[in-house]
């Protein structure tokens, strides 16, 4: 199987760029022949890479073009290259906002396409974030990805329709697409994972002081305000610690200031030592209103840090097995979950032991194998068999 992997960002940088890099690495380890076309590359990739906007050390900076012009130019270049590779590619994997022309060319050439969905349906995400910001009286910072943009929504909805299949990393994400009218046949599931070379449990005894960690983008959709409100309604705040590892937007920080000033809350800002913080913490809290997967949950499980999450994060977080799960937006239930683990260390250790025992099920290597299977499923549904090696090549 030869896959053209189009990525309209800098492969191997932070956030989704790191996710894409791990996907490519996992696919190669799973035996997939990956031809990768990112805008640029931030770290070495174990696959054939042909960047679209960089040549050696020369690169057209995205800041010069602007974000959406970069996406458009990247898409045009990939589409043109795909024309020349028509008989050498079995499947095309694209990402949102930079794929319209590539999808059109692939459809004309009869090559199956899958679109990565790192989040829920865009319309759903826009609407739930807008409603929550209005409810709590917070404005998103300028340029925030979740500021309602009709042009972005229109393009991505056209991409959703043109792609043969939508790759959803969570049931929550898949559900938002089904509720938007997409058939189950168009949705294919896969997963994300964690890097076991960075995230592992601390064998030392747990600290006496109960420690909660919120890690990642401290955004409204991630529910930091819900987590802090739950913390303030739990006895754990009397002698426990709530650590926030992530930058907080100015208006959101203003809204949270009365809680952030409490001595039990420690704002760490953006951190590079998240694995160490997870090893120090008893639980990770992630009461998301919307999620594509909740990558930080896999990293927490890999570190022996028990996730306390909303129902938007239930693909690997199983209630009373390796996590505690609350309904989306339910502050009272989350407060009870924090309290019960603060008071019942036996239950805390039981959940932690399950995380450690099952952690190898959630690595990026496993995710790479699953993504390969998802590709095979897409090709079977499309009715196109995988390319077979010639007999002579097999004998060699």
Explain what the structure shows.
The chain has 396 residues and is α/β, with parallel strands linked by helices. The chain folds into two domains: 2-193 and 364-395, Glycogen Phosphorylase B (Rossmann fold, 3-Layer(aba) Sandwich), CATH 3.40.50.2000; 211-360, Rossmann fold, CATH 3.40.50. The protein is built from 15 helices and 15 strands. It has helices at residues 16-29, 62-65, 67-84, 100-109, 122-136, 150-162, 171-178, 224-232, 250-260, 274-280, 295-303, 331-343, 345-358, 364-382, 391-395; strands at residues 2-11, 33-41, 48-49, 54-55, 58-59, 91-94, 113-117, 165-168, 187-189, 211-215, 241-245, 265-267, 283-286, 306-310, 324-326. A seven-stranded parallel sheet has the order 3-2-1-6-7-8-9, sandwiched between helices. It has a six-stranded parallel sheet with strand order 12-11-10-13-14-15, with helices on both faces. The chain is globular, with a radius of gyration of 22 Å. The relative contact order is 0.12. Residues 389-396 have low confidence and may be disordered.
State the end-to-end distance.
18 Å
Q: Give a quick account of the main beta sheet: strands, pairing sense, barrel closure.
A: 7 strands, parallel
* Broad shape: globular
| Rg value | 22 Å
Q: Largest beta sheet: what is the strand line-up?
A: 3-2-1-6-7-8-9
| Number of extended strands | 15
Q: Please tell me the overall pLDDT.
A: 93
CATH architecture of the largest domain: 3-Layer(aba) Sandwich
CATH class of the largest domain reads: Alpha Beta
- Uncertain segments: 389-396
Return the structural class.
alpha/beta
Oligomeric organization of the protein chains:
single chain
Give the count of helical stretches. 15
Structurally, the number of domains stands at: 2
Helix content: 40-55%
- Strand percentage: 15-25%
CATH superfamily of the largest domain: Glycogen Phosphorylase B
Order of helices and strands: EHEEEEHHEHEHHEHEEHEHEHEHEEHHHH
In CATH terms, what is the fold-level topology of the largest domain? Rossmann fold
